[in-house]
Amino acid sequence: MKRYLSIGLTVVLISLTANTSVEARGKTEVITKPEVSTKPLVLASDRPYTGYVTPFELVHSAYQGKYRSHSIPGFGSFIDGARTGKITAKDLVKAAIESKQLPPQAIADRSYLGYVDLQLKSMRQ
Predict the structure, then answer these.
(1) How far apart are CA 40 and CA 108, in angstroms?
(2) Among 102, 73, 66, residue whose Cα is nearest residue 87
(3) Where are the domains of the chain?
(4) CB-based burial of residue 47 (10 Å sphere; 0-12 exposed, 13-18 middle, 19+ buried)?
(5) What CA–CA distance (Å, rounded) separates 28 from 33?
(6) From which residue to which does the signal peptide run (predicted)?
């Protein structure tokens, strides 16, 4: 009986190893080299603007006084201006466009202006 058991286990073990090696050979992958671009590298300083800053980043930057040169005060005066309505979402977007942080099309983006306005409302509370 022991003899049949050991023969049976040996047969199962051999069939498993033979089956596994056949499966492993069937799964080959071709690795290709990534394409190398011949386009010149464009630095962020060469671009007219860096892309959309998030509404949160825009309001936070204005709060920190980044747009003082565009007649938008910082810190407590910014919060006061946001509460009284002296500082609007359009004002912030215009300042960001002038400082090349937003593209000129951003002034017509109602969705973006709405999100900036939401951020300003959160400052009013």
Answers:
(1) 32
(2) 73
(3) 51-124
(4) exposed
(5) 16
(6) 1-20
Q: Report long-range pairs for 66-71 (Cβ below 8 Å, ≥24 apart).
A: 66/99, 67/92, 67/95, 67/96, 67/99, 69/99, 70/94, 70/95, 70/98, 70/99, 71/95
pLDDT tier at 88, thresholds 50, 70, 90: very high
Residue 95: is its pLDDT beyond 70? yes
Q: What is the pLDDT of residue 123?
A: 83
**Residues 24, 85 contacting (CB under 8 angstroms):** no
Provide the angle, in degrees to the nearest 10, between the axes of the packed helices 110-124 and 75-84.
110
Q: Token pair for residue 6? A: 């050991």
Q: What tokens does 87 get?
A: 């500082």
In which region does residue 90 sit, left (phi positive, over 0), alpha (psi from -120 to 50) or beta (all else)? Answer: alpha
Q: Give the pLDDT confidence of 51-79 residue by residue, as tens digits.
A: 679 999 999 999 999 999 999 999 999 99
- Does 46 have pLDDT greater than 50? no
